[in-house]
Amino acid sequence: MGSMGPAAGKPHAVCLPYPAQGHITPMLNVAKLLHARGFDVTFVNTEYNHARLVRSRGPAAVAGLPGFRFATIPDGLPPSDDDDVTQDIPALCKSTTETCLGPFRDLLARLNDPATGHPPVTCVVSDVVMGFSMEAANELGLPYVQLWTASAISYLGYRHYRLLISRGLVPLKGIRRAAGEWIP
Predict the structure, then answer these.
(1) How far apart are CA 57 and CA 52, in angstroms?
(2) Among residues of the chain, what percentage have pLDDT more than 70?
(3) Is 12 assigned a catalytic role?
(4) What region holds the Glycosyltransferase N-terminal domain (predicted)?
(5) Is residue 42 within 8 Å of 13, Cβ to Cβ?
(6) Which residue out of 12, 23, 35, 50 is catalytically annotated?
């Protein structure tokens, strides 16, 4: 990560959401906050979601701003017959886990090329489900932050699931199964 003049000291965050809308929007909000605080930001979408965004909003939607750019990596899924639907989530989970590390490593290498004129990557902010990005960040000695994009209570449930089971609190007992039975 050599010197590149004035940009060399500027922090550069690479933001990588899980490729589903409920994950992309919160990560984009974090990326905007970082950019507003002086970070260079590279927001990484899958090629599939990037193409959907361009189709729905036009090329200006991903034109970026000075210091804010979009980049893509493949998601590893075969091309879809319908390019405007949510992908098969279980297949996407499996595919991103198994195929995205290499393309993400390559992207980080390209972003760190002094010829880009951008500051080198100084940290990775990744969706908690994109665990492969931690391996890539560790290989480069980069700080790594995970973003939980769901609610805080869902995180607590996930984090303490085994404890909830051991105390007999999960699965819930005695709850009526039909929504109509308990909704006033």
Answers:
(1) 8
(2) 85
(3) no
(4) 14-140
(5) yes
(6) 23
